[in-house]
Amino acid sequence: MLEEITYKLKKRLFRYMEDYDITLEDLKTKQLEGAEIVDVRSIREHKENPIKGSINIPEYEINESFTNIVPNKEQVIVVYCSSGFRSTKAYKKLKQLGYSNVYNLYGGLENY
Predict the structure, then answer these.
(1) What is d(CA 32, CA 28) in angstroms, rounded to the nearest whole number?
(2) Model confidence over 44-102: pLDDT tens digits?
């Protein structure tokens, strides 16, 4: 019963895929092509279960100083988190900072 309620809540709360969302398969392809993979979860979460080759910059730390880490605003960047909510916020921040090739792992790690 509890599992059914949890499933229905998640289904209702999840948004549809947007143009900037990608799947895990797309992420793997972009990573092979040289994309910067950014885990926007906490340091503790990143240590527990990172995507190999990703860097950890918590969503709340993404600001102008991000340009010191990834100075090329044309660089392909994929952000991810546990559920897709923090990474969507990170995506929007990076776009405001002028990054043009930013993508979000749809649904976060929870879906995979």
Answers:
(1) 6
(2) 999 999 999 999 999 999 999 999 999 999 999 999 999 999 999 999 999 999 999 99
* Phi, psi (degrees; rounded to nearest 5) at 6: -60, -45
Side-chain-facing half-sphere of 62: CA atoms under 13 Å: 26
With contact defined as beta carbons under 8 Å apart, do 103 and 21 qualify?
yes
What CATH number should be reported for the domain holding residue 50? Answer: 3.40.250.10
Whether 59 maps to a domain, the answer reads yes
Cβ atoms of 35 and 68 within 8 Å: the answer is no
Structural domains of the chain, count? 1
What is the separation of C-alpha 87 from the centre of its chain, rounded to a whole number of angstroms? 4
Q: Which domain holds residue 99?
A: 17-111
Q: What's the CA gap between 8 and 111, in Å, rounded?
A: 15
Asked if residue 9 belongs to a domain, the reply is no
> pTM of the prediction?
0.85
